[in-house]
Amino acid sequence: MREFLVFRLYGPLAAWGDIAVGEQRPTTPHPSKSAILGLVAAALGIRRDEEERQQALAEGYGYAVRVDASGVLLRDYHTTQIPDSTSRLKHLLTRRDETRDRQNLYTVLSTRDYRCDGLYTVSLWSIGKTAPSLGEAAAALHRPCFPLYLGRKSCPLALPMFPLCLQAETFESAFAQYDEGQPDALKNFLLQPLKALKADVPDYYWDEHDAPTGMQPMHTTPRQDAPLSRKRWQFGKRNEQYARGKQ
Predict the structure, then answer these.
(1) Does residue 107 lie in a domain region?
(2) Is 160 a domain residue?
(3) Which residue in 151, 171, 196, 203 has the fewest CB atoms around it within 10 Å?
């Protein structure tokens, strides 16, 4: 038996960033490991420039996510005006100050993807002694130090996360225990279209390295979302495994 921290994420909009090239800002259908660690760091009050504490989180927790409802893809054509590089070197306090000199503005065009009405259950477990205990992380998620959001600041949480520490053999067993204590009204509502198609089977994603699971992965995907430096926005590679749940 080992300890797991399990919690849920739901919001009308979420953006789980993938590799962005040029004006394209895609999203994956499930939360990345860096996004989950970012949520925990914000809850604990760890800032992006605190490199050692950020790295302790990255090296201290294993990760798995169950996609209960992947939501619907929303694509936004996004326009933003920003000053040129010379103007941005100045000390600007507000957005109004930034755009006051209209002669030095130029427009950035981008396409940004979101997931609408996605519901995810996340599990963390300790893999080292560097990170805070799972109990500390659960308490922080109950009362976060900084505001939490689902990938972008425009994507706030719509419900409490209900973090809970559980004892189980595998993370899928921890998910099952967690479900017993949670109301199913929201989950059933979001899955109604899938149930009509008999496709309401959850997807599981987890770290390749020594994950406590009894499932056999259907495939392994390389991901570049292992945090290396939050301050410089650098991410390393890891392997993520995937399996389809049972009907």
Answers:
(1) no
(2) yes
(3) 196
- 8 Å CB contact between 173 and 24: no
CA distance 154 to 135: 29
Q: How far apart are CA 13 and CA 114, in angstroms?
A: 6
d(CA 87, CA 98): 8
- 97 located within any domain: no
113, part of any domain: no
What gap in Å lies between CA 79 and CA 129, rounded to an integer?
44
User: What's the pTM?
Assistant: 0.84
Contacts of 200 (CB under 8 A, 6+ apart): 191, 194
**How many separate domains does the chain show?**
1
Per-residue confidence in pLDDT tens, the chain, 247 aa: 899 999 999 999 999 977 777 777 888 889 988 899 999 999 999 998 888 898 888 889 999 999 988 888 999 987 877 777 655 556 667 777 777 766 777 777 888 899 998 889 999 999 977 889 999 999 999 999 999 999 988 899 988 899 999 999 999 999 999 988 776 666 666 666 555 444 557 899 998 878 999 999 999 988 888 877 777 777 888 899 999 876 5
